[in-house]
Amino acid sequence: MKIAFIVGSFPVISETFIINQIVGLMERGNTVDIYGVENGSVNDTAKVHPDVEKYQLRQFTHNQPSIPENYLWRLLKAIWLIIINFHKSPLVILRSLNFLQYGKLAASLRLLYLTVRLLESPSYDIIHCQFGTFALIAMMLRDIGAIKGKLITSFRGYDISLFVQQNGEDVYNSLFAQGDFFLTNCEFFRQRAIKLGCDPQKIVVHGSGIDCSRFPLKLRYPHADGKIRIATTGRLIEKKGVEYGILAIAQVSKIYPNIEYNIIGDGELKANLQQLIDSLQIADQVKILGWKTQPEIIEILNHTDIFIAPSVTAKDGNQDAPVNTLKEAMLMGLPVIATTHGGIPELVKDGISGFLVPERDAQAIAEKLIYLIEYPEIWTAMGQAGRADVEKNYDIHKLNDELVRIYRQVISNDLSTQQLGLVVSAESIQCS
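The structure assignment produced for this chain is given below.
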């Protein structure tokens, strides 16, 4: 199959789930081209996943061409692009300028810039959009004839929470009508998409997979030095709730000062979180480590005792699915503390593979931390249960096999979820 992935920018180290799917599809003999639709770069691309180099993914990547900020220069460059490309597909180029139909995307000339690089692209069997926001753009590109193929959209989090709250509950009406099929990474978001108007027969849960073999299980026991090592991995944005992890550590450190909290990640709240750490006078115990590669994260988690994922519903409505960083920690045998938030309860079994606490409740996180510190004999059982669940429901090889079969059924127009249920098991739909 020929497959086009529509993403924001590529590669992005915090979006390992996209790389996992691309590599899995290539290993199964498919051709994958990657198209970025966001202008400019993101700040976490300095470090990249090792598979980007191993599979030379950059040679299959077409990020959005540079669009001048100054509209005059943008217009002049657009005129030149039209002149040198018009002969390739006059009608497609003219359609990309139709601001009456395509609104701001066309009026800003961004649709033209996105179109030009597609004029000589092949017809695809599948156009897979990672996030609904990018699917809206891909829908327009397909509508004007710039790209061809069955349109599949994966909803993953902010696109079905924050974006909807900002743009209204009808923002995906046209996509639900024109899109060929839809995937969500948890049942929580599947139900939300259905509530927004998606046909239940055109949407299934397809979890975000992990290469379990890369995360070795380690049975957890207290260290000889008596230090308790705790970690969190994620972007430093509001919905990750990192401040509540910091506040919990501040409470616990009064009872158990020999603790260490490593925050792996970066983002817009880094300065605010560092200020909080300093104001609580726990800078000796809490460190913000910045972005790390997957091997670096594995090394840190290998020496960690407890993992915290304190996700919250952001004030703007942004929410999380079962996050891959939490799955990675569970694979490595770490007992986890997470929140009753979004799709996370579909991943963490309270009291079995970890503990669930209410959102924005630092006291509850602190209480569970103290419990785990005082009863380290349960670390091993929790860690083993967590790994077993992730291996069962989120193994990337099983999920990539399922994805290929879903593609084939979409291509053959067999879109019944009852038929797809033979591919995506009922258990996967409930737990992935």
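Interim note for the steering committee: The longest strand covers residues 2-7. The two ends are 25 Å apart (CA to CA).
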